[in-house]
Write a structure and sequence with these properties.
The structure is a single chain. The chain is mainly α. The protein is about 80% helix and about 0% strand. The chain contains four helices and no strands. Helix 3 packs antiparallel against helix 4.
Length: about 100
């Protein structure tokens, strides 16, 4: 399960950055492409985000995360590059 969480964390981080790129770069340069990509990118990111949160809660007891660590793992899903930090600091040596 931890390996799945690691992959989900990386994919969620990538989808977050791709969604931001679509919002900030493509929106101004190519509005038609922006509207074409918005729904599939948003849906993909949403599914990965929910998966990340659900997996974090399911791993809470088995990984013996304290409240501070768990809060960092959850908050990281809201910050660009946050899930990459979590994967490197908290998950790298555990899988």
């Amino acid at each position: 399960m931890l390996k799945i969480f690691k992959v989900t964390a990386i994919l969620e981080g990538i989808s977050y950055l791709v969604l931001f790129a679509n919002m900030l770069i493509i929106k101004n340069s190519n509005p038609e492409l922006y509207h074409t990509l918005l729904r599939p990118l948003g849906m993909t990111h949403g599914i990965l985000f929910i998966g990340y949160i659900v997996l974090a809660f399911s791993l809470l007891k088995s990984q013996k995360w304290d409240a501070k660590t768990f809060a960092i793992i959850l908050i990281a899903s809201l910050v660009p590059f946050g899930t990459f930090y979590v994967e490197k600091k908290y998950l790298e040596n555990n899988a």
